[in-house]
């Protein structure tokens, strides 16, 4: 498995994802979005699978602080804004090859682990 986790060190759901894979002894490449924002192509990969709206954390403090809850911007425009304001993203963003998830989704990660074990 080649797992990448995009998130923030101080985010509870990101830490849950890291712990999930660590408990199963699966090596993970962690990208701290605070230090290195996600690339446009990386976000597009998640948006193609789940839609741009699923990537935006509309309940987050940063979303409200920027006044976006009243702006009515399209999800695609918000996704462009998230390139420079990564706190607008729902995290963690987890990628395993071509498979991607948004948020805390241990049931999907478990399926990935099971598939990987069956192949081995």
List the SSEs and their pairings:
Blueprint: E1 3-7, H1 12-23, E2 28-32, H2 40-50, H3 52-55, H4 61-65, H5 75-82, E3 93-96, E4 99-102, H6 106-119
Distance between the termini: 11 Å
Low-confidence stretches: none
Just give the CATH class.
Alpha Beta
Number of helices: 6
Give the topology string: H per helix, E per strand: EHEHHHHEEH
Please state the average pLDDT score: 92
Report the sheet with the most strands, covering strand number, pairing sense and barrel closure.
4 strands, mixed
**Shape call:** elongated
CATH homology group: Glutaredoxin
- Give the structural class: alpha+beta
The number of strands is 4
Helix content: 40-55%
- What CATH architecture would you give? 3-Layer(aba) Sandwich
Query: What is the CATH T-level topology?
Result: Glutaredoxin
Strand order of the largest sheet: 2-1-3-4
* Total domain modules: 1
Proportion of β residues? 15-25%
Characterise this structure.
It is a single chain. With 120 residues, the chain is of the alpha+beta class. The protein has a single domain (3-119), classed as Glutaredoxin. Helix content is 45%, strand content 15%. A four-stranded mixed β-sheet has the order 2-1-3-4, sandwiched between helices. Strand 1, helix 1 (12-23) and strand 2 (28-32) form a beta-alpha-beta unit. The longest helix is centred in the last third of the chain and has 14 residues, at 106-119. The relative contact order is 0.21.
């Amino acid at each position: 498995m080649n797992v990448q986790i995009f998130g923030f060190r101080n985010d509870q759901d990101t830490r849950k994802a890291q712990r999930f894979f660590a408990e199963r002894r699966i090596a993970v490449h962690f990208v701290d979005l605070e230090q290195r924002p996600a690339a446009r192509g990386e976000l597009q990969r998640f948006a193609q699978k789940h839609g741009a709206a699923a990537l935006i954390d509309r309940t987050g403090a940063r979303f409200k602080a920027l006044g976006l809850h009243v702006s009515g911007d399209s999800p695609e425009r918000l996704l462009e804004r998230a390139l420079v304001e990564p706190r607008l993203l729902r995290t963690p963003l987890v990628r395993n090859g071509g498979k991607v998830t948004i948020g805390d989704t241990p049931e999907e990660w478990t399926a990935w682990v099971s598939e990987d074990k069956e192949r081995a």
